[in-house]
Design a protein that fits this description.
Layout (H helix, E strand, L loop, with lengths): L1 E8 L3 E7 L5 E8 L6 H18 L5 E9 L2 E2 L6 E3 L12 H9 L3 E5 H12 L7 E7 L3 E7 L2 E2 L32 H4 L1 H12 L7 H9 L3 H25 L3 E5 L7 H14 L9 E3 L6 H16 L3
Parallel strand pairs: 1-4, 4-7, 8-11, 11-12
Antiparallel strand pairs: 1-2, 2-3, 5-6, 8-9, 9-10
Helix pairs in contact: 1-2, 3-9, 5-7, 6-7, 7-8
The structure holds zinc ion.
């Protein structure tokens, strides 16, 4: 039986899985990301996790390689990190593919973690069977990817899918995490939704999006307005992307996708108002694979990459 290792490398946690046919996760291992200890320690942890999975693998399983979905912008040619946020100090410039290929002695493919997440959902999750999949993930930030025929469209610099940095009328004048302002992430991310709630309510104690969602469900009008603004801004953005890209399906994932019915209603209403009439029946659905999506997508990347490499 053939299988591949998939790794989801984030700022707080590294999760690895042994993934078999059909994107089935056969075994898994995870550890906290030693972010403060630097890139060397982070990659050592990845190697330890992959080795632990390999040691537990039965003799009838052939592992074809290791796919990594990593935080940061990944250069497709070098497999190195072009840019990363402060959640992984020193991560920018790290040659993830070269280091792991040498340490693991197997083919290694690296993509951005959101791209891996989208690929997993497109191939084996809510997008299975759809040729063109638009994935939108909203949580700490807002991002996603366009997947066409099982390939993430990563763009010239690997930056494609930074949907959070599309201008939004709801965000005019609001500073964005990228250093710009007026981008949809500045109202539609979890932290932005909290910030809007703090402004409206004057309650500076709320720093967790889940608390805003709870308060909205309990009838707090400021919380409800914050949730509606976040969901509506994301929905308007999705409607615009639908018009630009005409995918077969839109998958919405990330932490905010579990924010409840009010958020989803705002999102669907805004997307519905924005999209062109011909696109009225394009499904907008929730993600299906949960936390496994990036592992499954990263493992799928191995199959594609290994097959394409010259013998
Ligand atoms: Zn921005």
């Amino acid at each position: 039986m053939r299988a591949a290792i998939g790794v989801d490398l984030g700022g707080t946690k590294i999760a690895a899985g042994l993934v078999g046919a059909g994107g089935v996760v056969l075994d898994r291992a995870s550890a906290p990301t030693p972010a403060a200890q630097g890139p060397g320690a982070v990659l050592d942890t990845v190697v330890d996790l992959v080795r632990s999975l390999l040691e537990r693998t039965g003799g009838d399983v052939v592992v074809s390689g290791c796919g990594v979905g990593s935080a940061g912008v990944i250069d497709a040619v070098s497999g190195a990190v072009s840019s990363a946020t402060d959640s992984l100090p020193g991560w920018s410039g790290t040659r993830v593919r070269d280091v792991l290929t040498a340490a693991l002695a197997m083919p290694v493919a690296v993509v951005n973690d959101v791209h891996a997440h989208a690929l997993g959902e497109a191939l084996h999750g809510a997008g299975a069977g759809s040729p063109t999949v638009l994935m939108v993930a909203a949580g700490t930030g807002v991002g996603g990817a366009l997947v066409i025929d099982g390939r993430v469209q990563s763009g010239r610099r690997g930056v494609s899918g930074h949907f959070g940095h599309v201008p939004a009328i709801e965000a005019v004048g609001r500073p964005c995490t990228c250093g710009g302002s007026g981008h949809v992430e500045a109202v539609a991310s979890g932290p932005a939704m909290c910030a809007v709630y703090r402004e409206l309510s004057g309650d500076a104690s709320v720093v967790d999006g889940r608390e805003v969602v709870r308060r909205a469900a309990d009838g707090d009008a400021h919380a409800a307005a914050s949730v509606a603004l976040a969901g509506g801004a994301l929905g308007r953005m999705i409607g615009g992307l639908l018009n630009a890209l005409d995918p077969d399906v839109v998958i919405v994932g990330g932490g905010l996708a579990s924010a409840g019915e009010a958020w989803w209603t705002a999102l669907r209403d805004a997307a519905g108002a924005e999209r062109l009439p011909l696109l009225a029946d394009t499904p907008i659905v929730g993600a299906a694979l949960g936390a496994d999506a990036a592992i499954v997508g990263a493992a799928a990347l191995v199959a594609a990459t290994v097959m394409e490499e010259p013998a």
